[in-house]
TrEMBL record:
Domain N-acetyltransferase intervals: 1-167
Annotated organism of origin: Kribbella sancticallisti
Name of this protein: N-acetyltransferase domain-containing protein
One Pfam family named in its UniProt record: Acetyltransf_1
PROSITE patterns listed in its UniProt record: GNAT
């Protein structure tokens, strides 16, 4: 597994991964990511800006084929996190997508993200998850995340907040 920063050339690949994921989810009747949020232009701009800030990562195999992607930043959204929580040193994870044929990689990628956050002095790895997707909430809980709260926001679809500590005890990050 090779994890490297995305470049602007990866934007199209990331959008393809997102489309593949939404189509896969639709087969199970899950509407997550069925439409771009808040619209395609702003979504693409948001992803591009993350790439340009060096905050989007590509997970590739030895043949340089993309297996997954994830974005990590330290900006806490004041609509989601309280002032006290915002004061915590935390890393925020976005757009974690694992291609179907590489299903199972997510845990390893989140462990890498936790170690990275820990090395950078961030005590928490946090994520905001599709508000009513309880199957996905369970996935994060099974991966050691605690549910913080669920916000029902009219203008933001991912109001279920989760976090896990990046402190691995005696394990060397
Ligand atoms: C979530 C994800 C990154 C996990 O990857 P992974 O750790 O490699 O594990 P898998 O893909 O095998 O998924 C683990 C389980 O979660 C379920 N799951 C994954 N994404 C889900 C979603 N968005 N909604 C509901 N269930 C989901 C899978 O069906 C699977 O269930 P199973 O154990 O009963 O087979 C990957 O499934 C994915 O890219 N999902 C679509 C995009 C997504 O929802 N990303 C998270 C945004 S917060």
């Amino acid at each position: 597994m090779i994890i490297e920063r995305a470049t602007v050339e990866d934007l199209g690949v990331i959008l393809t991964l997102r489309t593949e994921a939404s189509e896969w989810l639709a087969q199970s009747g899950i509407d997550q990511w069925a439409v771009a949020w808040p619209n395609p232009e702003e979504q693409n701009q948001r992803i591009l800006a993350s790439i340009e800030r060096g905050e989007t990562w590509m997970v590739r195999n030895e043949d340089e084929a993309t297996m997954a992607t994830v974005a990590l930043d330290t900006w806490s959204d004041p609509r989601l996190w309280t002032p006290d929580e915002q004061a915590d040193p935390a890393m925020y994870m976005h757009r974690l997508i694992v291609r179907r044929k590489h299903a199972g990689l997510g845990t390893e990628i989140m462990d890498w993200a936790s170690h990275r956050a820990h090395r950078l002095g961030q005590h928490w790895l946090r994520i905001d998850v599709w508000t009513d997707n309880t199957g996905l909430h369970r996935y994060y809980e099974n991966n050691g995340f605690n549910h913080v709260r669920t916000l029902d926001l009219a203008d933001y679809p991912s109001g279920a907040l989760f976090q896990r500590s990046t402190d691995f005890g005696d394990e060397v990050p």
